[in-house]
Amino acid sequence: MPQREEPESLEMASTAQNLMKIFRGATTGPGQQKASPVTPQRLTRRSSGLVELSETLSSQDGLRVLDLGATSPGNIRYLTELGHKCYSEDVLLASFDPSLVTKDDQGNRVLDEKRFLSENLVYEPSLFDVVFCWNLADYLDESLVKPVVGRFWTALKPGGMLLAFFHTRDAGPDAPCYRYHIVNKDTLEMQHIVARPEAGPNPGSSGRAYPASKTHFRLQRVFNNRNIENLFRDFASIKFFLARDNVREVLVVR
Amino acid sequence: METAKAPDGVRGEMANLGKSLSIRGELSGSEDLYIDGQVEGAIDLHGNSLMVGPNGRIKANVNAGSAVIQGKLEGNIRATDRVDLKQSAVVLGDIATQRISIEEGAYFKGGVDVQRDVARPEAKAAGISSGKAPSPAAATAPEPRKS
Which of A22, A42, A66, B33 has the fewest CB atoms within 10 Å of its CB? Predict the structure, then answer.
């Protein structure tokens, strides 16, 4: 009967609205509700590579650690509290500097590798004890991967360690790009990052903000074990850890 | 664009370089300084505070007691007490200080060296201590993460 159903449905709608208000924490009426900001979900994961690396981090003092990625206050705090000197550099964002893009003789788009290397990862040889490379290689332009790994080799001390993550093929091309924040000696917090226009400044000469891409950082390729071994063939040793989340952790020693 | 301001209680006691001012050379003094303009050269505040407003564009090495950065700074910062990088900060250079706080969203490229006693280089050479008690916590907790 419509006359009965109407109040019931209104009451149910009202109850649902109130419930939604509780969930949203809203106090305003319908139509006046402000869009609440969406908190990016941060996941945590255990890292076997970090566990192994943490032995070095906790047993020695005054190490020089290079943390690649967007500025992470948590990582800086964690590493400096252990008495280390922390260097921060966002190489992936820097690789999206549009002024690096040129064209070759055939008109194909290429990145100015020489200029990129003259402005990024410029450190004296054998400066670092540890490099956190994270998942950089998976998202970096193909032309920059080998030169950047070469820079790591130069910048690391003999015996220095590098931690890198690689997606397995199962992850798929739309695997989200994460910034990793160290929580403790075996746990990482994963923050999904996107290339935002206002994401960062141009650390080069122009001083402009990066236009960056309009969407997420895209997985450029998937390295298999052989590819990874080739990539780090100049290093002394390499150790693989296969995680459950389609990520292969690699701990490399210079 | 709204002109950013230092906290009123603080700014009243600070020397102030407005956003239309541009200075090239060495800036030194013994009082707190708020810069919202452009400075290229060197800044030495002898243990006093430097605050760089959101319009501030600095290309200089900085020696100060503390530094709060909201704008862009290219150069090394040596602060005997603390360094705060606010959300809008862009810092390209190395930081040596006793305590550091970096807000989520700040852009930083360089090294952070948290030292118990960051004395001025010349003071260290002369064997003069900063006179401040060493901080038990090397680095302060960052600001709460924002969505």
Answer: A22
The pTM assigned to this predicted structure is: 0.76
What does the domain layout of chain A look like in residue ranges? Answer: 1-37, 42-253
Whole-number Å distance between alpha carbons of A112 and B106: 27
Closest-CA residue of chain A to B88: A200
SS3 B40: strand
Considering only CB atoms, B147 lies closest to which of A39, A64, A83, namely A39
Top-tier CATH class for A42-253: alpha beta
| Count of other CB atoms within 10 angstroms of residue A180 | 23
CA dihedral of residues B83, B85, B90, B93 (deg, nearest 10) = 30
| Test mutation, A88, A119, A191, chain B, max B CBs within 10 A | A88
pLDDT digits (tens, 9 = 90+) for A94-133: 998 889 988 888 888 888 999 999 999 999 999 999 999 9
- Is residue B134 within 8 angstroms of chain A, CB to CB? no
Residue closest to B113 by CA, chosen among B83, B86, B136: B83
> Looking at the predicted complex, does its ipTM rise above 0.90?
no
Tracing tokens 């700014």 back to the chain, one arrives at B11
CA dihedral angle for residue B110, residue B116, residue B120, residue B122, rounded to 10 degrees: -120
CB pairs under 8 A between A and B: 61
